[in-house]
Design brief:
single chain, about 160 residues, alpha+beta, Cyclic Phosphodiesterase, Chain: A, 4 helices, 7 strands, about 35% helix
Length: about 160
Amino acid sequence: MHAIWLTFSENDRNYLKKIIDGLAKKYHAPKFEPHITVYGLVDSEMSLIESIAKETTLNCNSFLVEKSEILQSEELWKTVYVELKMNNQLELIYKNLKKHFEKIVKYEFNPHTSLIYKILPIEEKIKIINELDIKNEFIVNKLVIQKFFPEVEKWKIVKEYNLI
């Protein structure tokens, strides 16, 4: 199983990684790479996934994503997360991936970047949100293929495509 992620410029990656690692340490949660899952859990040949990812990034420039708000949910993968505003680039990338992958798996894209994966009481999640001060914009500059495992610590980026 693989996921297709968008990842951030080095500065924004480091900025988000510091927040993720801090929360992981404080709450004994797994550490992970900051990312936006643009298409999730495709069970297909790696060669097919790579060719679609490569095609998707052709003529695709790096771009800005804007924070909408910081939210929490009951879902592990969205314990506390930064909701991002949909924009043309995000939509275009998602639609291109969907066109190829929806026969294999349906995936509803809600742009966000998670900050922690841990089942926590709602009061704790609200406390985290209230203590966070997250900047408003991030630069996306790569599309990557991530090998998925149920254990977050085993996740691995297996292929990267730079956005121009």
